[in-house]
Write a structure and sequence with these properties.
This protein is α+β, with helices and mostly antiparallel strands and 166 residues long. Helices cover 34% and strands 34% of the residues. It has six helices and eleven strands.
């Protein structure tokens, strides 16, 4: 992505155009927009109409724009994407530092690694995941562990031991 918008700005377009907006710009919260200032441009700065809102024309949100935005996303997609038992792996070559979007639902059980280093997972596009990666070749690995699984097993085993002792 080159652009970002807030969830409120995305909702301004209504359900019909929201999916088109998410192809054109990544939906971030205000803190994320400040954090990634300089990496992603505010879409509203380029398509300002006036007042508190901005609006894209049908030319910018219509069928041709949709196809163009799909092609733009495909050109920057991962060259390798493999799923594994507890996660997935991707390889991507970026022309510049950027957030890499994954259309996989965000959940607290995910841990992400970019080039072997653990990185923060951002909740973007109203419930999906993205991680920051540097320009050049990147290996991205996500691992999933069910939150509370270990504690649940310990409690269950302890209860079983107590039941057997009883």
């Amino acid at each position: 992505y080159d652009y970002c918008i807030t969830e409120e700005e995305c909702k301004f377009y209504g359900d019909e155009k929201a999916s088109n907006m998410m192809l054109k710009a990544m939906v971030l919260n205000d803190a994320q927009i400040k954090k990634y200032d300089g990496i992603l441009k505010r879409l509203s700065e380029y398509y300002y109409v006036g007042g508190d809102n901005y609006e894209l024309s049908d030319v910018e949100t219509g069928e041709q724009a949709y196809k163009s935005d799909c092609e733009a996303r495909a050109q920057t997609a991962a060259s390798v994407f493999e799923t594994h038992k507890n996660g997935f792996y991707a390889e991507i070559d970026l022309p510049r530092d950027n957030l890499v979007f994954f259309s996989i639902p965000y959940d607290e059980g995910w841990t992400a690694y970019v080039n072997g280093k653990e990185v923060e997972i951002e909740k973007v596009n109203i419930g999906f995941m993205a991680v920051m990666a540097e320009a050049g070749a990147n290996e991205i690995r996500f691992e999933y562990k069910t939150p509370g699984l270990i504690l649940g097993l310990i409690v269950s085993l302890s209860a079983l031991v107590l039941l057997l002792m009883y």
